[in-house]
Amino acid sequence: MVTTQLRGTRAQVSLEFSAMLMMAALFFVVLLAFANNLLQQRFTDQSFFAIRDITYTIQDEFLLAAQVQPGYERIFSIPHKYQGFPVTVTIQEKTLEVRYNNQILSAPIPAVQGSISTGKNKIWKDMNGVIHAQPLP
Fold first, then answer.
1. How many Cβ atoms are within 10 Å of 116's Cβ, its own excluded?
2. Does position 8 have pLDDT exceeding 80, yes or no?
3. What is the number of other CB atoms lying within 10 angstroms of the CB of residue 137?
4. Mind listing the pLDDT tens digit for each residue in 47-76?
5. How much is the pLDDT for 28?
6. What share of the chain is helix, strand, coil (3-state, %, to 5)?
7. What does the alpha-carbon distance between residue 101 and residue 122 come to, in Å, rounded to a whole number?
8. Tens digit of each residue's pLDDT (9 = 90 or more) over 110-127
9. Among 7, 90, 99, 126, which is 20 to 30 Å from 80 by CA?
10. How far from chain centre, in Å, is Cα 59?
11. Domain extent listing, the chain
């Protein structure tokens, strides 16, 4: 009779231990999922801030060219890649578009003749006050 009662107690302890182990594993999986979600959100936020910084920097180049006197000339660079992702830059009418990590950010710019791309670019304002831009080799 003592053996049967001891065997039942051992089985119960084993079952309770297994249940606690399963709950701990489930808690750990939920914790990992939550941490992964937070990291993914942080990466997305960092990507947005990166594309925003690139876009505003390029926009500032064109806004500066619009404000200065004719004869202004400047060479500036746009990175081919940023944090391992390719950067694409286009000008459509009076809008600058920057594509980075499957995100697009647009910014208004003054009227510009020409285009820009990643790498070195030249921007200048001619004597008639027209802003020009062109990629450099």
1. 23
2. no
3. 4
4. 788 889 889 999 999 999 999 999 999 999
5. 92
6. 50, 30, 20
7. 25
8. 999 999 999 999 999 999
9. 126
10. 18
11. 2-135
Type of residue found at 95: T
Q: Which of 68, 65, 67, 109 is nearest to 89 (CA)?
A: 109
pTM attached to this predicted model: 0.70
Residues found in the chain? 137
Residue 39: what pLDDT? Answer: 86
pLDDT of residue 5: 63
Q: How many Å apart are CA 52 and CA 2, to the nearest integer?
A: 74
Instruction: Give residue 41's pLDDT.
Output: 82
Assigned token pair, 135:
């990629």
Distance CA(54)–CA(86), nearest Å, equals 12
Q: What does the alpha-carbon distance between residue 12 and residue 18 come to, in Å, rounded to a whole number?
A: 10
- Three-class secondary structure of residue 49 per DSSP: helix
- CA dihedral angle for residue 37, residue 39, residue 40, residue 41, rounded to 10 degrees: 90
Both tokens of 75, joined, read 């060479």
The dihedral over CA atoms of 134, 135, 136, 137, expressed in degrees to the nearest 10, equals -140
